[in-house]
Design brief:
The chain has twelve helices and twelve strands. By secondary structure, the protein is an alpha/beta fold. Strand 8, helix 7 and strand 9 form a beta-alpha-beta unit. Bound molecules: 3-isopropylmalic acid and manganese (II) ion.
Length: 349
Amino acid sequence: MMDEYRLALIPGDGIGTEVTDAAMRVTSAAAARFGFGLSSETFPWSCDHYRTTGEMMPGDGIEILRGFDAILLGAVGWPASVPDSVSLHGLLLPIRKAFNQYANIRPHRLLKGVEGPLRSGGFDILCVRENTEGEYSGAGGRVHQGTGNEVAVETAIFTRAGVERILRFGFEQARARRGHLTSVTKSNAQKYSMVFWDEVTEELAADYPDVTVSRMHIDAMAAKMVMAPRDLDVVVASNLFGDILTDLGAAIQGGLGFAASANINPERTAPSMFEPVHGSAPDIAGRNIANPIAAIWSAAQMLDHLGESEAAGAVLAAIETATSRGIGTRPGLNTTDEITAAVLAAMEG
Ligand code: IPM
Ligand code: MN
């Protein structure tokens, strides 16, 4: 019997709706060509939804999503009407945590035909960002608000289970790629959590003798990604460090419009979620000029995760056929629809 996947679509805010639509058109074309079935349900959870209902998603939103094979998300956030700290903590971040999507995988390389800002383009980095704890643990509080004695505390929490599982995931990725892992910390300044992270890295390295391991501090890594990105293979970092480095990664690959991302639950105990790194981009929303490539590439990551690796490869190849023909390689060059059409045409041809 033909495999059929059930997808939950959360287009969300701003350009999220435009790029999710593009990604779904390409995913459906891949399903037709590679002979698997797709059904999807679209959820209107967004800042608009918040304005009418007072919540980003219903109270049982997580339970609703749990029944799907994967989630495709566009973007969350519309700061003009809902503070980011409310919208993100009401939708994106709880999904990552509730579904144990602890590995946020973000590939950074130049697609054919795309010129990044660096002189040396030959890099291929896979950033593995811890996605459920660390600086995003949400542990903290404020006292004496609005007074001169005000105090705000936000504690980064690192557990052995959490650090070990993300590093193991990184080692496995390195093993399947070029065999090099760089673990990013700031253990010269943060003497508890980051020294602990370094120790776990060293312990686990013994289990992966085929992987060479380097350790770098986040500041030096930021410089390296600009000066010598070719030297990097798999980069593993904590939640916040990985967040920052992957915007840098997006920049060196030509911009956020090319930056794909997968929030993976490796044990498959709950659905994984796929989303472009860019946000809702209010400044260009609704104008058919957002680059859908990051979302389409994220959909390819989704197909790969679902076991349709041939289809995933074909989608990625189609993206690169389009970019190698000069489509979508620079902001403003083509419309969202034109880029999507070029990818669809490449899939057929
Ligand atoms: C990302 C985003 C989110 C994050 C924000 C919107 C909370 O920047 O996915 O990189 O920090 O994780
Ligand atoms: Mn980010």
